[in-house]
Design a protein that fits this description.
Number of strands: 8
CATH superfamily: Jelly Rolls
CATH class: Mainly Beta
Number of domains: 1
Structural class: alpha+beta
CATH topology: Jelly Rolls
Helix content: 25-40%
């Protein structure tokens, strides 16, 4: 079996994380591949996976009843998906669809939650890293709203 620890170490989300934490995390990790158009995760379903995107592009979509889904952001290599594994009530907030063939590392959310409960320092470190992702995603949404507002009111 291929050791994923070197790959985790290189991914920007885990870069600089203590080796002892990576030793815990690697036991929750596996390589995955998604074909173009395949769903990685679905809004409203249990958040049981967390993805480190290695290659490809993935659309984050919001489902609107009786309308087409809206793409709110596109992520690609070196991004993450599925942060809801850590935040109760542990349900995905977006549907994520592969725009292109996508390679990723899947991390088991329940496994990670258990490891965070066992080691609160690890949990705190991951939460700090996720907070950076939250901030970035909110900023993207804010800019989109500003653009929509400017376009509609000129």
């Amino acid at each position: 079996m291929h050791d994923l620890k070197p790959t985790l170490e290189k991914h920007p989300f885990f870069k600089g994380l203590k080796a002892e934490y990576l030793d815990f995390i690697v036991g929750c990790a596996s390589n995955v591949h998604f074909k173009e158009g395949e769903i990685l995760l679905r809004e409203g379903e249990a958040a049981d996976k967390f993805f480190l995107i290695r290659e490809g592009q993935v659309a984050l979509e919001i489902n609107i009843p009786q309308h087409e889904s809206i793409i709110v952001q596109t992520v690609h290599g070196d991004d993450i998906l599925g942060w809801s594994w850590l935040i109760p009530p542990h349900f995905y907030r977006f549907t994520c669809r592969a725009i292109t063939s996508t390679r990723a590392i899947a991390l088991d959310g329940k496994c990670l939650r258990n490891k965070c409960e066992e080691n609160h320092d690890l949990g705190y470190e991951l939460l700090k890293r996720l907070a950076g992702v939250f901030t970035q995603r909110l900023e993207v949404t804010r800019k989109q709203l500003i653009n929509i507002y400017d376009v509609e009111h000129k």
